[in-house]
User: What shape does this take?
Amino acid sequence: MTIVGRRLRHLRVQTFLAVAALSTAVALPVILLSVGGGVAQHEISSLENAGYEIVLSGPGTHPISSAHRLAEALPREISDVAAASPVLTAALVVQERNGSIRPVVAEGVIPEAFTATLGDMSGALFPTPLPLGDPTDLVHFDNGSYGGPVSPYVLVSERLLAALGLTVGSTLPVAPSSPATAWTNYTIRGTFELPPPILGPTAAFDLLLPLSNLQVLTHTTTFDQADTVDVGLVPSAAADPATIQNVAAQIQAKYPNYAVSTLTQQASQIESVTAILTGFYLALSAVGLTVGLVFLIVLLTRRVESDQQNLGIQRALGVPARRLSLGLVREGALLGAIAGGGGVVVGVATVRALAVYGSPAVQAAARLAVFSPETLTALALVAVGLSVVASAVAGRAILRIRIVEALR
Amino acid sequence: MRSSRPTIRLRGIRKAYRTPSANGGYALDGIDFDLPPGDYVSLMGPSGSGKTTLLNLLGLLDVPTEGSVYWDDDDVGRWSERQRSRLRLNSIGFIFQRFYLLPMLTAQENVELPMRARGVGRGERAARARELLERVGLAGKAAAYPHQLSGGEEQRVAIARALANAPTLLLADEPTGELDSANSARVLDLLESARADVDATLVLVTHNPEVAQRARRSIQMRDGRIVANARGG
Assistant: This one.
């Protein structure tokens, strides 16, 4: 074992404290960067896998009007548009078997268009094709009269189905939330899964029914209203950001009253926010690392002071001061390597523990954590670098030791 | 060029206290003295007479306030600390009253320390350390830490350490000051035989006239001055 190793073993408590301080300072950015980066990456990935590339929206409640016409017109008028899916979101109530009322969030969609704008990930959550009856939702809509025969089908989330204790094929009474008196009986034709509970694009609704049916239930038939229109492009256009921007500009020109945004823009906004947050995390971590550095300098300087006699003996024997100083730097580097490695291990272990034992939201976020080897290595190296700086500062004290005084 | 067995000369040495005192503020005041190769000198005098300060100057642990210390013709006061360190490492062996072994190292590792600093290979220095420990009668204590050794044993390890790099100058500051008479005699015998083996120069600080009498030359100090310099032994 080297003299450095012996000194570390000889001064167990001090060594432990120094390693613990620096490890904590390293573990903090490991946790923040891995979880923060993971959540952002998941969000961007969700956008990239949404299936549609452009979204029309507007201010206020149910701002889109002429939803059925839009769904028909957009693919016809713009060649790169494959499908346009209006989506209406509204609060409803369902009646349980015991007569009690349960509020739910419902989405109304045009089945065929909705399926066409789903990506692989979200598409896997729904049956294909959607078993909601009329695929184009034009029969009941009947050119805006809503006079055609109603498709009496509904899809429910597996979560709701389990909560209601019903099965596929059961009858489900549905009514608008206010007044909750006009009940319409729907037949449950199937179920869909919910995406992971964090930041999913279709996170919270439990009922999926034809757009025209939901419009009737929520009295939004006057202007054939919806909340958004998701626009999917043909594969060749979807792969080219410039074409996406071009199509978005064409849509904007045709519908100047709506906000037209691309998912690329949204992803870019998330990336910008992520970059800001990463900077914030790093600033926060820098505070921890600076505290660790100061602690280490104080600790090593105190160690030099308390070890002055042993250092004086070695210098009396002819060991050059620079060599002793270098020994302290090696000691610092070893401490830094232990603390850096330990901090990374503690950080990763903490995230893993949070993924199991945290609150549901924390668990979900922790499970998305991404551990970048480059980041972890850089953080460990920062710990080594800081320790070397701290020991070099403390090592200057060795150069100032007066041998005869150290031997008194 | 320094010879391997130099004559050490002190000329006009004065060493000021860091804090001025009654004696004009000098721990050493006008020391002139030659130390030829192979000499065996005892330094005697009451506490505060300047013995240890003189020893520190001889061992290049300190520099004089005035005057010069020459190794042959080289004024070592002009040397850098790095050069003085190298000279201490290669040519001077120290034995201290309080032994000053490093507590975190075993007896053998303490003996190896000067060789390690000199860059001697692991195998060679381990063999030499074992040989030196055997010579001082501590072959069985190589793996012991200082706190596991008696005072006499610690001092013998310190002697082995002082001899590690085969120095030409041995400086012993009251080496028997904390030992009983049996251990004192054994330590002195070891020092004298080590000196004789390589014809090294030995300077020994002591309060004990019997110890001083064993030297070839006895220097008496008082108030920072040499008051007697007599050939004996």
Notes: Residues 10 and 213 of chain A are 78 Å apart (CA to CA). The two ends of chain A are 29 Å apart (CA to CA).
